[in-house]
Amino acid sequence: MDVLTSIKNAISSIHLQSRFFIAGAICVFLFALSFGLPLLFPLAQTLLVGIIVATIADGVLLFNASSKITLKRRAGKMLSLGDENPLFLDVQNGYQLKMHLTIYDELPVQLQRRDFDVKITLEPGEERVLNYHVTPLERGEFHWGVANVFATSAIGLISRQFKTAKSEMVPAYPSIIQMKKFELLAFAKTSNFDGIKKVRRLGHSYEFEQIKSYVQGDDIRSINWKATSRRNQLMVNQYEDERSQQMYSIIDKSRAMHMPFNGLSLLDYAVNTSLVISNIALKKYDKAGLISFSDTIGSTLKAERSPIQIKKILSALYNERSFVKEANYDLLYRSVKNVIRSRSLVFLYTNFESVYAMERALPVLQKINHQHVLVVMIFENTELMDYSRKEVKYLTDIYTQTISDKLILEKKHMVMKLKKHGIQTILSRPEDLSINTVNKYLELKSKGLI
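The structure corresponding to this sequence follows.
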């Protein structure tokens, strides 16, 4: 039974190559011509015998029992949402002859790619590491199938299929890569990076950090005169930020956050940013918490500064999903009142698509802002912005661009009205949400407003 199974597996792994069909077509053509030109018949017979012998020889080379192709896939423990994640394929040629390989890796269905293949040539016994990148556009489980390797010898009439690299699942979490990137940018003291703004401190806390040389913009009240006299240059005391303050990320999961931009929904942008800002707050010794809501309250994590808090936030964000119902801001206010007991910095990620929707939520936002430092993060419709700048070709374009401009002005009017009521508001492009949130956090910390 085992012999029959082996034979069956060997037959199923045989695949005829284009070279085989081309040679066969030529052979058939010669046989057809030999009806009118009998001199071609021996040539056609010779070619047929040659194809058969070459195919058998190719099979003997490929199905050598002691030779095989091995491939191992190396993926990380998790994928980062919206980022390019590297994967590696370790390929080894176990044959004693040069082999031409075509590799088909069975990618997860979420990636919607069925044309992925890699063609390489390996010398006898050669090992090579191949890499490619995947960009998940949704959170959840990504299942890889087996990797199919088709090996072809120099004869090239048939190929042998190897099924390697076992099936595996890799979860796609909120962007860990983005979290690490902004952590480095926010804490870099000696370099200037694009995006992160270094804000001069207005006043200082009681936590002394170090004495440093005076630079333009430092508070002259912090000059250390004793150190200045010793070093014969101006020296100033540098103080740390206030610690153990509370920062909450509140995420709107209603249907307004389901809108996609560049493959990611607004909810996904808010999820990635919440992870980024929570990590920076914890690194600055503040407490980070999380609340999500739609028509019901979702994840709720009280602000803490424990070593596992970022893991709790990451797990909670991983399971967030958007809803088709409207956001209930009255329910949000009751939750904020019950969960957030002391004055905190609150980032609210939401998306008002009409002035009416904003005005309904305004009384609740005013109450929250009265008790806490509220920053409302609203998304700019980048597709409308791009469309409004396009060249007008037809009369209908004038109408649609006029409507687009009206919607863009409405969004700016919402921001102005929120600011008029004392609510700090940022209108951000989805891809710039993390940068703008980190900058606002650093600004509020430097001004001592939280």
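The chain has three domains: 2-62, 69-173, 246-447.
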